[in-house]
Amino acid sequence: MRVFRSLDNLPAFKNAVLTIGTFDGVHLGHQFIIRQLKKMAQDCNGETILLTFHPHPRLVVNPDDDSLRLLNTLDEKIELLEKYGIDNLVVIPFTKAFANTRPEDYVKELLWEKFHPHTIVIGYDHKFGKNRKGDIQTIQSFSDELDFRVIEIEKQLVNDIAVSSTKVRKALFEGAVDKAMKMLGHPYSITGQVQEGDKIGRTLGYPTANIQIEDKNKLVPADGIYCAKVWREKDQSTHLAMLSIGLRPTINDKKIRSLEVYLLNFNEDLYGETLKVEFYKYLRSEKKFDSLENLVKAMDKDKEATIAYFKN
């Protein structure tokens, strides 16, 4: 997959079959659109192009609204779109000036002049341009003059898929990571760097890696204990793991939310490394125990449950 992070110096595309969207999560609905895009490109001997935006438009248009949580960082989105077979990804730098583009200019100066599309695949409810006044009718009004096809993703089709980024976010906020995985078609993941913690886990027989998440807009699932897998960037290895999200109430009085992972059958130093954590199943809520001994007993049970889950 070719990735372009600017609209400058784009190559000439062959019979471009193009779609536009944030594609947050690259969930089953997005994957359906990608499959349709690939089939159309194959039929016209062309190539697929996906236009997305960075930062997310809401973060630019409503900078004071800190409520948005995203399923993917840009790097994660790129990795998933490559996995699902897009030929070309164009990341449009989203600015207030871009948001004020007249819808007519958006079609003629962006979609046509930059890509000369054979086909534009667009959602029935897609809005664009200044004050979000542009829609599928705007694009269709230029299709004869500029000689491209417009394919609408109908509302009924979207409803039949019954998947949305909003539904995935809701499941994750509730801790239902297995439900989210079914809608995504892949495990939800978080990538971050291991930072030094208080090392209490070592004294309990459960040395954990404290994951620092750099993107403040990245969605972190509900507090609790999870079955997980950890991918280690350093040696490309994968490990079964237990994951804890929360305030660690038994041993922590700082009220700082943390994400800690314990790798099963692993005893190497991970400080400074980059790990990707994949969420598979919610085990239990976070709880304050009356002693470290009882905390360890609960962790022993969590370990047994994690091994059993992946064994089955």
Key phrases:
12 strands; 312 residues; six-stranded antiparallel barrel; alpha/beta; six-stranded parallel beta sheet
Quaternary class:
single chain
In which order are the strands of the major sheet placed?
A: 1-4-3-2-5-6
Assign the structural class, choosing from mainly alpha, mainly beta, alpha/beta, alpha+beta, or little secondary structure. Answer: alpha/beta
Biggest sheet: strands, sense, closure? 6 strands, parallel
Q: What's the shape?
A: elongated
Total beta-strand segments: 12
Give the % helix: 25-40%
Low-confidence stretches: none
Order of helices and strands: EEHEHHEHHEHEHHHEHEEEEEH
Report the mean per-residue pLDDT as an integer. Answer: 91
Total helical elements: 11
Strand content: 25-35%
Radius of gyration, CA atoms, in whole angstroms: 23 Å
User: How far apart are the first and last residues' alpha carbons, in Å?
Assistant: 35 Å
What does this structure look like?
The protein starts with a strand and ends with a helix. Helix content is 34%, strand content 26%. Strand 9 and strand 10 form a beta hairpin. It has a 6-stranded parallel sheet, sandwiched between helices. It has a 6-stranded antiparallel β-barrel with strand order 7-8-11-10-9-12. It is of the alpha/beta class.
